[in-house]
Specification:
Layout lengths: L1 E4 L5 E4 L20 H16 L1 H18 L8 H15 L3 E6 L3 E7 L11 H24 L6 E5 L6 E6 L2
Antiparallel strand pairs: 1-2, 3-4, 4-6, 5-6
Length: 171
């Protein structure tokens, strides 16, 4: 629990943010945050209204803005970088990442991403996951670029209920 100040400087107790969780039937639990559903709908509507080609740069700019708004500082090691990224992702309730050095590139595994999904593996679900990958890929691009990196992030895997895989550098 955290304390928040209201306008009249009275302290009130605020509930902590709940992690996204599911009931045994795969649906969201009653205490799950509802913003992942809002994100689902925003991505759906944007891609339907603008099309993939026009939605992609907009969603990528969103990721870059997130990276600017949530700077990492200058972690000295890959493990410290991963830890700082995971702290920022936790603040957003956006899951976690694992980063490993694969020689000429970094492999970034992102799990527990913020989509409700409802088990939807049809075209709408595919586009929703693709839209989220554009946001996350550019978020990593922004964070790694701020560390002095010059490479690009590429998205490698798009499968429901599995970690998303990104490569940073020449694979």
């Amino acid at each position: 629990m955290s304390l928040l100040n209201t306008w009249d400087d009275t302290e009130i107790e605020a509930p902590s943010a709940a992690r996204f969780s599911t009931e045994p039937d795969g649906g969201p639990s009653a205490d799950a945050p509802h913003w992942p559903k809002v994100l689902d709908l925003l991505i759906d509507e944007l891609i339907q209204a603008a099309g993939e080609a026009e939605a992609q740069p907009l969603l990528q700019r969103v990721g870059l803005r997130l990276a600017e708004d949530l700077p990492l500082g200058q972690p000295a090691t890959l493990a410290a970088l991963e830890s700082e990224i995971n702290r920022r992702l936790a603040r957003l309730s956006w899951g976690w990442c694992l980063i490993r050095d694969a020689g000429r590139h970094l492999v970034i595994e992102h799990g527990d991403y913020p989509l409700m999904g409802s088990g939807d593996i049809g075209e709408a679900g595919r586009l929703r996951l693709l839209g989220l990958s554009w946001i996350l890929g550019s978020l990593y691009q922004g964070w790694l670029g701020a560390q002095g990196g010059q490479a690009r992030v590429s998205y490698q895997r798009n499968r429901f209920h599995q970690s998303l895989i990104f490569h940073y550098g020449s694979a």
